[in-house]
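Re: the 192-residue chain
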Amino acid sequence: MIKIPGKRVGKRLEHSKVFGNHLHHKIPSNADLLITPLVDMFVIIVLFLIANFSATGDVLMMSKDIVLPEANNVQDVQLVPVVMVSMEQVSVSGTVIGRVDDLTREEYLNIPALEEKLRDMKKQFEDLHSYAKDSEGGFKGDINIQAHKEVQFKIIKRVMFSCASAGYNNINFATMQLGSNKPAGETAAATP
């Protein structure tokens, strides 16, 4: 319980005959903390943050290094793993897989690091859905490739082969919608 303190005198006047005699008792400085209002305040903050969270944000992270090609026949982008191919590097969900210069020198048809990362992501997805016993949300093999429009086809072919080898057979390309009523900068996926 918090008590309202009485009058206090300064340290200099504490021992004076006029002011100091009646104020020799110490006022307790500790007070109990009331938890209920504190919990109420945090609940209100959490509810406010949940109410203002927008789950309909951008599905693709736009990079300044990637200029997307334009297409006429497009669909809306789905929330699936994204392979980003810029002129310098290949990355999956923010993890850099390799440099494009190194990948053009190699003669393999697949990219082993990309294939391994995608297999790990597929296993995590399947484990999560089997743990949740989700029968209708099975793995569909969807993936989006967000590639710079001037990347060599040799790199795109290797990325596509690696995706298919890892079990991602439904490959979509992120594009800008050409001459549409959508706002500038909105992305869509073109299915090959």
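Residues 11-52 form one domain.
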